[in-house]
Task: structure prediction
Amino acid sequence: MHKAIGVIDSGVGGLTVAQELMRQLPKERLIYLGDTQRCPYGPRSSTEVKKFTWEMVDFLLEKDIKMLIIACNTATAFTLHELKEKLSIPVIGVIEPGARAAINETVNSHIGVIGTEGTIQSHAYVKALQEINPDLHIQSQACPSFVPMVEQGCLSGKQVEEVVQNALLPMKGEMDTLILGCTHYPLIKNTIQRVMGNQVAIISSSEETAREASTILGFHHLLYKGEETPVHQFYSTGRIEVIAKITEGIFKEYVEHFDSVTIENAILRSLESK
Amino acid sequence: MHKAIGVIDSGVGGLTVAQELMRQLPKERLIYLGDTQRCPYGPRSSTEVKKFTWEMVDFLLEKDIKMLIIACNTATAFTLHELKEKLSIPVIGVIEPGARAAINETVNSHIGVIGTEGTIQSHAYVKALQEINPDLHIQSQACPSFVPMVEQGCLSGKQVEEVVQNALLPMKGEMDTLILGCTHYPLIKNTIQRVMGNQVAIISSSEETAREASTILGFHHLLYKGEETPVHQFYSTGRIEVIAKITEGIFKEYVEHFDSVTIENAILRSLESK
Result:
């Protein structure tokens, strides 16, 4: 079997990155690990997020992956630099791709960012954006209510509409581009777009991360060139039901892929030993 | 002075890549070389295109650039592989970025590609697209009349409308995404969009190449982190007037940059010695 792209997330949010990888790189094989048992990462300390992320990375490294995608904004904010330095395979986070796409998209240089408390407090997006263009106007806001709602599989309807309105209506203003700085948020993108209005371009860090994974794999001659149909593997540290439910929901248009998806309720070996 | 990004093109088309680099990476310094004297490359043999491209590359390498962008589709089709192999700095062509963006954009998997005879006959786009997704439907067509028109500075009006209609109307059909597989074409993008209709997404290989240059520079820690305002340099192998005219036209919204642009009518040293 050819080498896979490893994807880690605090829970189900990274599935939106997995979905985009399947769409934009349909020949590539994925191994996904969601730390659903310890989700959300947003309110956790940097030390805890680093420890959990390394446990997930060790699990995937044993499976001989060719690239690691940190499909969680909080984990990217706290560990990307360290992981890039220590691993010999390319490592991609979800923050810089969203930042670059927003810079490409904005016309009036007013960019909004929403994410978890951890991501927003880390100022990772502000840094990534201003490192490239110091003249941008950036407005950022934590939306702590979104992830727990999505992890419960609650993706549309009146409750979602209300939660999103309460969080985002006060933000509306000059921005013409809003970065969904959390991979859970694309699962409620339609509601976010409706609340912000069509004049605001919504940037999904998931879609952009898949695009950059494609760029980096291509640049380093790591794209899979064979003919094998990929068989993806999905692991969870906790109950697999939510991953299964969301997977069925978001992958339904890729039925041929969903057929070949192996969902296993794997307990991390590193956790077992505790 | 900090190291620049080198950009080469057969003429003025690469200016659309330069424009996007300035917009998406406003802190980076550019050195541009357009081979206006020997433009167009489209109808030339692979041997000739390779020879001319290497002459331009040698000129820029002497200026100690940190990245090379081959901002010409024909030159990319014939030389990217070789240049990536032989140079120690990152080399980016314009074909793969456009291909990846089209794969990201298309909903119905029907993609169109237009370019010069050289680019289309090289099948470089078809290869780049199908290497990533073999199930795409791709329709490609050479538009040999576009480059000479643009090189004359003819960018809008009745003549352009007629030429574009004659070339593209027969192509209209199932495609939902059209790649402008020549960096000259973004200069007549409005006309192309009008002829194809709003239901077709137009992918500018220039915009996407700048986006990927940003990705690769970021990934390799090569982004400029200092505070110096960049002073760009533009060189031409022939008459500078067309480059000056187009530059004034397309850079007008970046007045602060245009102020600091140095346009020099440089004759390639490697050409002088002949």
The radius of gyration of chain A is 18 Å. Confidence is low (pLDDT under 50) at residues 254-260, 267-274 of chain A.
